[in-house]
Amino acid sequence: MSYTLAIIKPDAVSAGRAGKILAHLEEKGFTVRALRMMRLNRAQAEAFYAVHRERPFFDSLVSFMTSGPVIPMVLESEDAVARFREAIGATNPAEAAEGTVRKLFAESIERNAVHGSDSDENARREVGFFFSEAERLGL
User: Fold this and answer.
1) CATH number of the structural domain spanning residue 27
2) Which residue, among 4, 76, 7, 77, has the nearest Cα to 37 in the 3D structure?
3) How big is the CA angle at 58 (ends 7 and 70), to the nearest 5 degrees?
4) pLDDT tens-digit profile of 10-67?
5) Fewest Cβ atoms closer than 10 Å to its Cβ: which of 1, 33, 80, 106?
6) CA of 138: how far to CAs of 26, 103, 113, 126, 131, in Å?
């Protein structure tokens, strides 16, 4: 079994879609190992998305991710990162496959409902950003 980080973003939380997204992920075979609701401050969002600092969308991403509550969670399954990326679909919901989280729940390429780690290495870093080892292992 492996782990990945998922974040239900402010757009999905404010639209009341968090429960449906969580249920959808559990139906896809993911087990929730840790979960919390929080509101990121600017410094936290900038640190989390630091890899995108030089990208033109960085400021709008940080503003969006601090605009309301988010729900970070640790999900477990076999090949968790790859399976989660498949379950959420393309960043642009117009290009996402039918039945994926983004096709079902995202509003736009910018308001795309969920964040997911893109590699095992990033999953370890991202999980550690939000959760202690004890929290993610349910100890």
Assistant:
1) 3.30.70.141
2) 7
3) 20
4) 999 999 999 999 999 999 999 999 999 999 999 999 999 999 999 999 999 999 999 9
5) 1
6) 17, 31, 26, 17, 11
Q: Is residue 27 part of a domain?
A: yes
| pLDDT at residue 55, as a whole number | 92
- Domain total for the chain? 1
What is the tens place of the pLDDT at every residue in 97-108?
999 999 999 999
Could you tell me which residues come within 8 angstroms of residue 56 by beta carbon, excluding any fewer than 6 positions away? none
- 115 catalytic? Reply is yes
Cβ neighbors of 2 (< 8 A, separation 6 or more) are: 76, 77, 78, 79, 80, 81, 120, 123
Mapping DSSP to helix (H, G, I), strand (E, B) and coil, where does residue 13 land?
helix
- Calpha distance 65→69 (Å, rounded): 8
Is there a domain that residue 109 lies in? Answer: yes
- Domain range spanning residue 70? 2-134
Looking at the domain assignment, is residue 139 inside a domain?
no
Q: What is the pTM of this model?
A: 0.94
Catalytic residue among 115, 123, 131, 136: 115
